[in-house]
Amino acid sequence: MAQTPYEVLGVKPDASADEIRTVYRKLAKQFHPDLNPGKPEAEERFKAVSAAYDLLSDPEKRARYDRGEIDESGAERPPRSYYRGYAEGAEGRKYQPEGEMDLGDLEDLFAAFGSAGRGRRGRGGEGFKARGGDRLFTLTVDFVEAATGSKKRLSLAPEQWLDVTIPPGIDDGQVLRLRGQGGPGFGGGPAGDALIEVHVTPHPLFRRDGDDIQIELPISLAEAVLGARVAVPTVTGPVTMTIPKGSDTGAKLRLRGKGIQRAKSPGDQYVTLKVVVGPSGDPELAAFLEKWAPQHPFDPRQGAPG
Amino acid sequence: MIVLEELLDRFAGLDRRELTRWVENRWVLPERRGETWVFHEIDVARVELIIEVRQEFAIDDEALSLVLGLLDQVYDLRRQLRRLCDALASQPPEIQAAVRRSLPPRDVQPD
Questions:
Q1: If both were cysteines, with which of A4, A135, A216, A271 could A182 make a disulfide (CB 3.0 to 4.6 Å apart)?
Q2: Has residue B54 been placed in a domain?
């Protein structure tokens, strides 16, 4: 390799302009051909020293040389193409190690990183250490489980599971975080978390309204008129409820504490009554109403438009 | 794309015997064309890399074999990672966001 102009003059690359001038003058005197008539090698040195000084005494040229834009003779250098510019492209496959790696191998690869981390830690004590990755799961619970809370077992692999506590009142799409149940840490780092996205399936009767539950309860004409005690489904099992005499469709009854089973203050269940006449054309009922109705005129549409 | 003679011209100080040895060691993989070798751009860049590694880091042949082997693995990994990233980039935004959320933090925790 050719000497750098700094080497030719014997100065450091950070030498000041004054320093370079002083050195140049000294060397020029020492090797000037006319002062060294019997030494042909002096002429070579003189030429080299002059060329080096020519480059380094011009601040612009010196800066370009330092940046690698021109070589020691002052000639332009082509911009360098680095190997990595090619190696990551498709042409780099040419130098791929034996045995093509596939994306399927990434798992093995991450496992290998993990053991490398532990190995280094074992030897040196201050090795690479990192938190493990989080793992994502989804879990589906039914409406009642979501309202009362429950415990579910999530199967990760044969002989490997995760016990998940579903808190009462969990929302559809809510994510539970189980600390330390994710991927193992590297080199003694803490494990990642398990993130469990919970889906709640809708229920045919119950409808959620904040911490309360709404339900529509069909009752018979007789139950509506005479009142009754009927069994009503709730998220904690059926309960008996009293329907007051003369209840109408749309009447709303409350079952206290039968809503979302929050530990501190559970919600309520609201029961909306819906009177159902039943199989039409009951001859006895029809006969009774034919006598009864004319004596008890009642228009439920009174005041309503149309 | 240049032939062997042009390559030797370009890198003063690189001699033919040495380069032949590199090719025999499969460190550089030019294309054989008749009596000569043809070097593609990637091969030229690789030759330059080998020259520098040998000279500037004073690495001998045995260690160079190891260095090149490791480098090839690194670039193979990077190509695979790029494939993975490209595959991720083609996913819907919510999947990309979920993957981003589940990436463990990069920082190394102190003891």
A1: A135
A2: yes
Q: How do residues A241-253 score in pLDDT, each as one tens digit?
A: 999 999 999 999 9
Question: Whole-angstrom Cα distance, residue A227 to residue A223?
Answer: 5
What is the structure's pLDDT at A3? 81
A134 → chain B, closest CA residue:
B102
In a domain, B106, yes or no: no
B contact test, residue of A3, A80, A86 with most B CBs within 10 A = A86
Range of the domain at A271: 207-295
Query: Cβ distance A189 to A127 under 8 Å?
Result: no
Count of domains forming chain B? 2
A215 and A254 together in one domain:
yes
Q: Which residues pair with A270 in a beta bridge?
A: A214, A254
Based on the structure, what is the number of domains in chain A?
3
Q: Are A133 and B40 in contact (CB < 8 Å)?
A: no
0.80 exceeded by the pTM?
no
The answer to whether ipTM exceeds 0.85 is no
**What DSSP line would sit under A3-26, residue for residue?**
PPHHHHHT--TT--HHHHHHHHHH
The span from the CA of B108 to the CA of B111, in Å, is 9
